[in-house]
Amino acid sequence: METLQNLSLGLSVALTLTNLSWCFIGVFIGTVVGILPGIGPPGAIAMLLPLTFKLDPTSAFIMLAGIYYGAKYGGSTTSILLNIPGEPSSVVTCLDGYQMARQGRAGPALGIAAIASFIAGTFGVLGLMLAAPPLARFALRFAPPEYFAVMSLGLTMVAYLTGKSVVKGLLATFFGIWLGIIGTDLFTAQSRYTFGQVELVDGIDFTVVSIGLFAVAEILVNMESRVKADLFKLPKGLRNLLPKLQDLKDCRFAFVNGTLVGFFVGLLPGAGATIASMISYGIEKAVSKHPEKFGAGAIEGVAAPEGANNSDAGGGLVPLLSLGIPGSNVGAMLLAALYLWGLRPGPLLIHEHPELFWGVVASMYVGNFLLLILNLPLVPIFVQILRLPYFALYPMVLGISIVGVYSVNYSFLDVWLMGFFGLLGYLMRKLHFPMAPLVLGMVLGKPTERALRQSLMMSQGDFTILFMRPISATLLSAAVIILLSPTVQRLSLREKKGPQRV
Amino acid sequence: MTKGDVWAGLILAGLAIFIIQQALVLDYFSEYGLGPGFLPLWLGIVIFTLSLALIGIRILGRPEAFENEGGTSAGTGRALATWGGLMLAIALLNVLGFITSFVLLTFLLVLVMDRRSPSTSMVVAVGGALGFYLVFSAILGVPLPQGPWGF
Amino acid sequence: MKTTRAFIVIAATMVVATLAVTPVNVLGQGFKPTRAVDVVNHSRAGGGSDLFARALVQMLEQEKLIPPGWQVLNKAAGAGAQAMAYLAEKKGDPHTISVFTNTWVVTSLTVKETTYTIDDFTPLVRMILEPTVAVIKGDSLYKNLKDFVEDAKKKPGQLIQVGGTVSSVDNLFRNLIQKTTGAKWQYVDVRSGGERIANLLGGHMHIYFAQPAEVSEHVRAGNVKIIAALTESRLEGLPNVSTIKEQGIDVPIITQVRGAVGPPAMPKDRVQYWEGLFLRLTKTASWKKYVKENEVESAYLNSEQLGASLKELSNQLRETLKEAGVKVVR
């Protein structure tokens, strides 16, 4: 009952004309920021922050939160249409989303991304609303050993992403891990593989690698043949511009999977949406009846990571609003905003400023709904991009890649590296090295190392700390089971496949 | 692509040796537990082993992953030429600024690689550049690299 | 696209304001910026230095000491290295300054890739000193830092301190205290302040040397308590918390410094402008409110004093870093 009362308080705050407008402005800016690669929500929020000082803090927070979760909707657009990951967390969306676009299913891909985002985003807010304080306490049970277990679980997803050659898949994974550890070692401040470059002291930005490997490499592959007329099958008729009922049915599990994985990973400070989207993609492929379709345009492969990416926002706000602990860069920015507005974000915020907490929660239901009705009509418009002749399209993709990478750190070295990774991606495609494991290794390698070393610092070098704690022991056992199961699956598949082949 | 795999294996083995050699300079243990050299050393060893395995599998001809995209050498040439153009444009970013480099790159790519008329190429190049200027510089205020003429 | 319009309005105001001040320069009454100034910092958006730079600009604007439109630039790579390289490039440019912290000094001492060090820049002003306090979980039995140290002596290596990088002030304090008291405890380096508090609240780690503002809300909620001020004298906002020296642990005090530096070899008249501007800021109501809310100490020093103080800090940090087992390259 109390929750309902509070929610009606929240709705009375969120549904005023002013706050509705700010919510719309926030999600609109968020969508734009998400679509454009390079410019992320932290940068956008920093830019707008000075303009919010004249606003009421609740209105301002409603708008900034709108940018945060709105950007997650937009991130899939360029991934699906142009193979340019708009945000790090939508790299996984490229794998199947772009293939769907190639097959004339850009509309359904964009549509399912919006729908999955809406479902997961809404359930994420529901979780935030119903159980923020107990969930935050649950998240506190995660210390480095538990993080190590989560990351290991994420790394085992490689088993499902390797493609046909296990050796090549593993090589790609370990190469990715190596790319990830370039930079200053957090614990000793020693440089690793920085080649004496100041710009590399902080490591290579993930955006640089992913835009090179996906967007640039794709163009190089397409440039091989002079005639590229049939590159994109164009969708015919309005009906094919949105997902069909069958598509929604196919994605039933993906919605649940994405929602849960995203929300729980979001709860953990410092884990992040990129990891959430990868884990949910791995799970989706692992349980799928047709895993061979993943990477070749499986609609679940778009729905699961996009869902995870969005419920991560709700999860991430749990520790932020109920404890004052930010889990990401955006979270830190939002926390800073609360300070600058003269509020005191912390464990007492929900009690002392219920109108803020419940207003934001209610506005997120509204915002997710606004995003759905904002994004679905945009789908047919965005799909028109593919009608451009390819000779006019790919220079734009190159331009967006350059600008996107440059605007991350304003570093020329980053742009050079993007070019280098473009060539690398091209060669990998020619030699059938899979892309997904490299990306996974790069995202998860360093956090896994960090968590392992932190765990051993806690235990004075005793490895048993990883297995003696209930949560980490459970997660690590799950990882072992996942590692063993594809081998079993493969054997049974081989038996089945024999007679089935026609 | 047998040859390609062997080359990839050799290059990766070389990289692995570099990784190991650098890892040996870093501390394996530190006062705070495992040192910065722990992961790179093992990473190097694993990459080295795997790359030898890749070469071995190829030479011994195990039928694992024997598919070929069948690109022609002319096709590869076109891809590499495009890449060369991109890298040249990146090199010019610092000197000519983004807008000018982009116009040059696009004009040349469309003209040479796609055999379109000079006027079509120019329209695509200038139109695209205008779009970038409007969206990124004018509306979003992203400081794009500038040339000596202020854009 | 409301933002764009707002920016255009700001830009226009700026131009007008600029035109208005130009004659003053012609009369030769010292330097004044003729266009919007870029304030560089070494954090990403939302990081400590980023927030400090934004707060400075916001307060200067609010107090009408500068025209609106000054930009904050993030050069986050390499813990200050990229910011230093950028600022060095701006030699001779009167419209770029940067905020700095101890990190610049530590990076100068420990990162061999940096081509520039803190000594290359023109010191402008010191603005604040950030005190450090020792924090434990609310239900912990220790009453003060001394109790913690005694317990650590009884079970060496079993208590865990959570903190920032090994070259951060918190780990340097740990090394200094360990050396004078003979106690030993573990140090775990956790990336963000939020995760550090989470580990403390979860009971996984036992002590955290924090800045008061970071934990004040948790103190208010009773989740954590402050057991010592690692400062020379008691803090104004925490009159009941005894200092580390009062508790009988005699260690040199390292303080987190925040201030501003300019590009190398800045002419005297420009330095005077910045000294004057920031000195005026410290007298305003906005500044007093900022200092109180963030529980920091307003500690203005002019260019010459800052130069001397940075040299001292550099020497002190070099010794402590070496003791902490961090490789010092300069």
Structural commentary:
The complex is a heterotrimer of chains A (502), B (151) and C (330). Chain A is mainly α and 502 residues long. In chain A, 73% of the residues lie in helices and 1% in strands. Chain A has one domain (2-488). In chain A, strands 1-2 form a two-stranded antiparallel ribbon. In chain A, helix 5 (91-102) runs antiparallel to helix 6 (106-139), helix 5 (91-102) runs antiparallel to helix 14 and helix 6 (106-139) packs parallel to helix 12. The longest helix of chain A has 34 residues, at 106-139. A two-stranded antiparallel ribbon of chain B has the order 1-2. Chain B folds into 2 domains: 2-60; 73-139, no CATH class. In chain B, helix 1 (2-25) packs antiparallel against helix 2 and helix 4 packs antiparallel against helix 5 (118-139). Chain B has helices spanning 2-25, 38-60, 73-96, 98-113, 118-139, and strands at 29-30, 33-34. The radius of gyration of chain B is 23 Å and the shape is flat. Chain C has helices at residues 2-26, 48-62, 81-89, 102-110, 145-154, 169-181, 193-201, 212-220, 268-282, 285-293, 303-323, and strands spanning 38-41, 71-74, 96-100, 122-130, 133-137, 160-163, 186-189, 207-210, 224-229, 256-262, 297-301. The longest helix of chain C has 25 residues, at 2-26. Chain C is globular, with a radius of gyration of 21 Å. At the A-B interface, helix 9, helix 10, helix 18, helix 19 and helix 20 of A face helix 1, strand 2, helix 2, helix 3 and helix 4 of B.
